[in-house]
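Appendix B. Raw example, untouched.
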Amino acid sequence: MEDLAHPYVPRDLKLPGYVPISMSMSSIVAIYLGSSLLVVFLVWLLFGRKKKAKVEKLLMCWFAFSGLTHIILEGYFVFSPEFFKDNTSAYLAEVWKEYSKGDSRYAGRDSAVVSVEGITAVIVGPACLLAIYAIAKEKSYSYVLQLAISVGQLYGCLVYFITAILEGDNFATNSFYYYSYYIGANGWWVLIPSLISFRCWNKICAAANNNVEIKTKKKTR
């Protein structure tokens, strides 16, 4: 049986057994956005009654959304190497078939992409969930953990974009998918972790300076 033609670039990408997407783009995006908003709503509802600053609640929402995305969505990609062959209309397989229009390295199992996503799903994802607990319980390691997660996410994005550039940056079906999926979808994991890193760095430095001042005062007594 002759393999069906896929919509990805480069056109000579070999995907034996490829099964076309059965869900529409609007349905895939709507389900993802809907489930993401539900997660944010539940986290806000759960911690909304506690005396937390709004920024802390927003951070918990971000880490919940980010962590579950890493574990569920990216985890599926890492451990489902032949998702493009799925003929059951499984949602997660449909997501990656659709996203591959913006970056065909996913369908082609590019080693750099698999490596970055694997580390993100197995390490960064669970760390995000731990960050929620750390923020909620005001743990001493909260800012250090948030900084480590955010730097890890930024590093992953850098590797993701740089390897694409080094390989020619020609993996999107067209400019719409390039800017909406490849740039737009990943841009949040550059912007928000950058802001969190800056905030955590300032918090950690302020705490360190405060400790130095306390020790200095004790010595002068």
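End of appendix B.
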